[in-house]
Amino acid sequence: MSRAIARMLPSLRARVTFVVLAVGTIALGLGVHAYGSGLGSSARDVVGDALWAMMIAWWIGALAPSGSLRVRSAVAFAICVGVELSQLLRTPELDALRSTPVGQLVLGSGFDARDLVAYAVGVLGAVGLELAVHSRQTRASRGE
Questions:
Q1: Angstrom distance (rounded) from CA 51 to CA 14
Q2: pLDDT at site 43
Q3: How far from 48 is each of 32, 39, 42, 110, 118, CA to CA, in Å?
Q4: For the chain, how far is it from start to end, CA to CA, in angstroms?
Q5: Interatomic CA distance for residues 25 and 20, integer angstroms
Q6: 40 Ramachandran zone, left/alpha/beta (phi>0; psi -120 to 50)
Q7: Which residues of 84-97 are buried (b: 16+ CB within 10 A; e: fewer)?
Q8: What is the pLDDT of residue 108?
C-alpha cells in the first residue's frame, strides 16, 4: 500500500463513521418525530432539536474529519443558530419551503430562543460521545 493511501485511510474511516452517525441520528430523530408522542409535545421538540444539532455536528465531522473538535463543534452550533435565526425572516419563498415536510424538518417554522439551548445540548452530546470513543480507542491502543 502506498504511503499516500495509508495516510488517507484514517480520514476515510473517520468520514464513513461520521456519515453513519449522521444517518443513524436522522433515523432516531425521525423516530422521535413520528412515534414520540408519549414524550409530550415540548419534550419531543427538545429531543428532536438536540438530535438535529447532533446530526449537524456529525455532518461537519464528515466534511472535516481532521479539523479540531472545538472548531467543528463551533461551526455546527453556528449553523444551528443561523438556521434558527433564519426563522425570523419571512418571505413567500421561505415560507413555502417551510410548509413542506422536508422544509419543516430542516429549517423549522418559527423562532424559539429555547431551541438554542437544545442545539447546545445536541452539539455537546456529540462532543461528549466523540471524546468518549476517542478515549476508549486510545486506551485500547495502549493495551489498557
A1: 20
A2: 92
A3: 7, 11, 10, 15, 9
A4: 29
A5: 8
A6: left
A7: beebeeeeeeeeee
A8: 84
pLDDT digits (tens, 9 = 90+) for 5-31: 556 567 888 999 999 999 999 999 999
3-state helix, strand, coil in the chain (%, to 5): 85, 0, 15
- State how far the alpha carbon of 140 is from the alpha carbons of 8, 65, 89, 137, in Å: 22, 21, 49, 5
Neighbours of 112 (CB within 10 A): 14
Residue pair 126/60 in contact by the 8 Å Cβ criterion? no
- Which residue is associated with the grid cell 436522522? 26
Residues 55-67 have pLDDT tens digits of 999 999 999 999 9
33 Cβ contact list (under 8 Å, min separation 6): 44, 48, 105
Quick check: 44 pLDDT over 70? yes
Asked if the model's pLDDT at residue 3 lies above 70, the reply is no
The number of residues in the chain equals 144
- Strand locations in the chain, DSSP E? none
